[in-house]
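Weekly puzzle thread! Below is a chain. First person to post its structure in token form gets bragging rights.
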Amino acid sequence: MKKIKDFKENGFYIEKSVIPKSLQEELFLVFYDLALSSLNRNKIKLDFEIKNINKVSFPNDVVKLDEILSALLAHTNDHIAEIYDTVAYSSTFLKFISLPKIEETARELLSLKKHTPLYSATHRIRMDFPKDIKRKAGWHQEIFYTLPETRFLQTWAPVLRDSTVDNGTLEICKKSHLNGIAKQTWEEEKKDYATRITIDNQIIEQYEKIELPMELGDIIYFDPHLIHRSGYNSSKEVRYSQVGMWNDCSYKSFRAPKPDFISRTISLRENYKNHKDLIK
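Winning reply:
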């Protein structure tokens, strides 16, 4: 089929109008509600008026969400990190990544049979704030950011608003997937900066760079060897984007990771001790 041919030749394939507006609206309300809860939980007072969640509308009030999230970020990135983790396991986001068309295309591009399970790894919605360089990834390949020794493809999709050149849409190095693993450097995590595995500039200079603006509802699938990065968000708005990997569970070296959930409050043992006197 044409989509498989395009995927193999170009290293990516864009499926148009997959994610319905109704689901985007649900995600907007999830973000808005979590943002309000974070304000209340952390007793943060803002110097602007907050619109009641019962009166907000999508997409008109995405800018209101931007304002609240930016205020939380100014207080501490920990508030944004918790919203990020919460959204990832919300029922609405699980519906998002479970859309039949997304799964169908992922399985088709991986040439898998209908009965072969797909393992969802690190599906999240990124929030990239205006002018932020600390959390911006450089040119990279996804193979070192996910499960080792697996066969997978990655998805990326705009959420809540279109992705544009101004707000830092996805950029790729044309046909770079055809040359396998590129020479790259591991940079350890440091204060306010995430771990980065970046490709040497001399290699990047060999490729034509392509910016890929996408409309809300679209989703891109790309090869794990395709060199890519998010652009610089020079706009005044937050860019929201879904990222994640689909792994082939039938691949010989695939092993599912062990979940590692860490409480942000007290440990399981401490919780037990706190209730010990109440246990009969």
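Puzzle host: Confirmed. Bonus trivia for everyone else. Helices lie at 2-10, 21-41, 62-75, 77-88, 91-97, 100-109, 201-204, 268-275.
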